[in-house]
Amino acid sequence: MLRAIVGINWGDEGKGRMVDLLSSGCKAVVRYQGGNNAGHTVVNERGRFVLNLLPSGILREGVVNVMGPGMVIDLEHLWGEIIRLREAGVAVTPENLKISDRAVICPPYDRQQDILEEERLGAAAYGSTRRGIAPVYGDKYLKKALRMGELADPDALSRRLQDIVRWKSLTFTGVYGAPPLTPQPVWEWLMHFGQPLLPFVCDTGRYLDELARRGDDILFEAQLGALRDIDYGIYPYTSSSSTLAAYAPIGAGVPGRQLDRVIGVLKAYSTCVGEGPFPVELLGEAGDALRQSGGEYGAATGRPRRVGPFDAVASRYGVRVQGAHELALTKLDVLSDLAEIPVCTAYRIDGRETADFPMGSALDRAEPVYTALPGWNRPIGHCRRLEELPPQAIAYVDFIERLVGCPITYLSVGPEREQYIERGRS
Asked: Any idea which GO molecular function terms this record carries (predicted)?
């Protein structure tokens, strides 16, 4: 079975928690795109872990974790992440972590360029995490990127680095008026943080293909959500990679394989980190209260997340482009104190209602149309079976399921590993 766990909305839906839950029994968990510009938070018996680059299966003994060729890897950040896990007693070895030799390295100059560009844009900035993701993906498609496998041949790597730094310096000096780059500091960074990672680097595509041939279970882990996809998201306020399930086999290194099942993750309300249109955004005291109740701060950056009621228009679109077969609804417990719970069922654009998710300037003009449902006004963190939930909570989940047109098979009622309800699938 080849399954993907993906985000339905703007990201931060709780995918890491679901990967941690569903990785039990899997042979491998694979990250197939993105870099350290988002975080997956996992809470288990060992503590609370925030993972930016490592697959969430790293917290499961016996699971092999793969960083695929579709990823961009900040060597310094990855090595720091490995050290922190080891200090917490989590084993990270070449036996349980494999890094694709085709994955792209994100050097310090791409982080620097990301910052320079956001500052140049000023009030029109895209809300980047300033971790170099857009510049390094740009390098990749301009064929000016360095790849993990090149660390094994320092002489060839040094020659390529000289040419790339000269090219990148033209942008730094000519566009931003910044000082020119020099290769030596980058070379020292590559050697210092790259050489310790060499034992993990291999042909991950061959490894995964062998697992698939044997019929082993492989779980593909996405970063961010459908609305941040470079092609199908709220462009230009997107990430620079494909966050969709359809890209999973390509970004993992097994492009000839097909997924058997797609599990979409979405919250019981809406959250968004970064800039861009967010029609259901709650401002003022109501927004602050929901943010505090849900602990809504970015796992990668600590930025306060924008929050709002559940957006069925955006979620239905996310379900469609992700090709989701089933859904996990997270943070249902956060709504337990509300007497009444609004749900966005449509948008009003230029005086006309629509249930379709628009793009471009039409999305900027979208106004949410709400339907209010009764709350349940009691904690649900102890519930482990569907019948233990208050009737109002069950009705809320049923209502969302009908609106998005996809079965909700998992409900999260708290942050701990065991705080979930399996609802069953059709």
From this structure: adenylosuccinate synthase activity; GTP binding; magnesium ion binding
Is 331 annotated as belonging to a binding site?
A: yes
Ligand-binding site membership of 407 (annotated)? no
Q: Catalytic residue at 12?
A: yes
Per-chain mean pLDDT for the chain: 93
CA distance 123 to 107: 27
Out of 12, 114, 229, 311, which one is annotated catalytic? 12
Cα(249)–Cα(245) distance, integer angstroms: 8
**37 annotated as belonging to a binding site for a ligand:** yes
Token pair of 133, please?
């993701």
Residue 300 pLDDT grade (very low, low, confident, very high; cuts 50, 70, 90):
low
Phi, psi of 349, deg, nearest 5: -125, 120
Among 60, 49, 50, residue whose Cα is nearest residue 19: 60
111-125: per-residue pLDDT in tens? 999 999 988 988 877
Choose the catalytic residue: 20, 40, 77, 139. 40
217 is catalytic: no
Q: Is 299 annotated as ligand-binding?
A: yes
> How many Cβ atoms are within 10 Å of 258's Cβ, its own excluded?
10
Ramachandran category for residue 165: left, alpha or beta (phi over 0 → left; psi -120 to 50 → alpha): alpha
CA-closest candidate to residue 276, choices 233, 244, 314: 233
Q: Is 302 annotated as a binding residue?
A: yes
pLDDT higher for 8 or 417?
Answer: 8
Tell the residue number behind the tokens 């050489």, with chain if given.
Answer: 195
